[in-house]
Structure to design on (143 residues):
């Protein structure tokens, strides 16, 4: 899965660089600036308490869920994932599921993808949610 995401991320980065160049936003070659400084958007995955699986909407969105796999929330952000998680828990611009059922971040499921440009993060959020759902995870978010 990691290799497929790495290839997809490279495609999205190339597309983002082409867009930036077309807009006249790139003045240096992209190899002159580290990726962490060029891009600051991230996808993230939050472990949710298993009680979320009792919510009717969650069960409807995950008909093929594997009860042995954890429930997760997938999102994207322009701030560090740990800060975004805290915002969810504080109720600030929060997802209902992440606020009520969020336990902790699962960096092993997303860290290797970050950082990326905004357009790539929007697309990657959807793809990551779909892939986790296909693997049997109960997934909220990722839209």
């Amino acid at each position: 899965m990691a290799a497929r995401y790495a290839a997809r991320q490279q495609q999205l980065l190339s597309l983002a660089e082409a867009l930036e160049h077309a807009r006249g936003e790139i003045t240096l070659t992209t190899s002159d600036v580290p990726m962490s400084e060029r891009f600051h958007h991230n996808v993230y995955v939050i472990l949710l308490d298993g009680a979320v699986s009792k919510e009717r909407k969650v069960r409807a969105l995950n008909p093929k869920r594997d009860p042995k796999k954890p429930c997760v929330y997938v999102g994207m952000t322009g701030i560090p994932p740990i800060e975004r998680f805290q915002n969810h828990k504080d109720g600030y611009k929060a997802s209902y599921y992440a606020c009520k059922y969020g336990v902790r971040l699962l960096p092993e499921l997303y860290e290797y993808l970050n950082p990326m440009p905004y357009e790539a993060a929007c697309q990657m959020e959807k793809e990551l949610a779909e892939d986790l759902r296909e693997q049997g995870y109960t997934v909220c978010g990722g839209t």
